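Example 5.3 — MFS transporter
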Amino acid sequence: MHPKTKSGFPAIRQILRQSGQDLTHQDREDRNRGHGQLDTQAKLLLFVNVLFITAGALSGTFVNVYLWKVKSQFAPIAWYTFSTHLAGALTFWLAGVWVKRFNKMNALRLGMAISALFYLLVLVLGTKVVSYAALIGLVQGMAAGFFWLAFNVVYFEITGPDNRDLFNGWAGLLASGGGMIAPWISGYLISHLSDARGYTLIFTISLVLFVLGVVISFFLKKRQSEGSYSWTFAFHSLRKDTNWRWAFGALAGQGLREGVFGFIIGLMVYIATKSEMTLGNYWLITSAVGLGSYYVVGKWFKPSYRKWGMLCGALVMSGVVSLFFWQVSYVTLLIFGAAVGLSYPLFSVPMISTVFDLIGTNEESARNRVEYVVLREFGLDAGRLLGILVFLVVTSFNTTPITLNWLILLIGTGPLIAWFCMKRLFSRVEASHPKEEN
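Solution (predicted structure tokens):
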């Protein structure tokens, strides 16, 4: 377990002092962080995060279903997802200079504004959207890139080793709550209205929530980074730093699964049931399991549990895919979703916390927090893009159930790859935060 310190995160505190920021209120918040609490800014960031995720959950799953209903092929949906992650990675890299040198909160707001634009485009294009699947994916990727780059940097600055697991637990808990209710509402509205009216309504609600998120974000403090942005920092880190090579491999393993499972599971539920309402019920049930799991992890999980907790999560997430060899039905998909909802917090909380602890190893690494956040995203998107490309290549030749099952099983081993890489980091990162006296 990481020891508690007076300042919570001394490296960041010293950097902010040197940049001339008034730390009178910040000092009080730092002391709270040192005792494992979440300050006002952390809670406000959680609220903005849940708005962004809820708006995406309300319509995100049904964008894929909408594309499927227009043209019942995997390729347009896979290309849409591929271009989303490609644009997201490029946006992280290109926007890094903005977040490093100027007000990063504007990047967060721009991400939410572009998300609103995305749903406006979907509304305008209607059924023609399938012809522009890859292009609208680029818009979605830009939105995600701006938002998550700014969010992750701010998250790093307002949390420390002592409350990072707590923040991630609450973030997952609130996201599960949004992911539980929003798709159910969408399924209910689409089922009780005509397809056109239902989809128009949920896309409109998402647009409004993103606009609301922009408004709420103005209550977050202006946080300005300092120094120059290094365009090649990520590549130099991979070449010189063994710890980051292992972290990159772990992130790629996580992304390998996420890229394909992010769209294929919801589609499988819809294809098996032909009902948006049933798909909404599916996410309601599985997210409820995830919500309970995140609550437990957020309340009782400790840094000393990370290694074996993550292994348990990875084993369940990878092993439960074998259900599809028995039968692909709503029941087996529901069992799969519940098992993943239960185990994913054990996998993700140690992963996120340890990588961000690695960023905060010392003052020098903390100064390069923007570049490290970009490197983190590169790892995730490298895995996502690889997984989707493998999926596109295989399904272009064969889409038989047995082929899809083996493909999903192969891609589903990503969490085990991630754990194998991460286990080398847990003890190193913990040892890098020396004990300080209160």
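Remark. The chain has one domain: 40-214+232-431.
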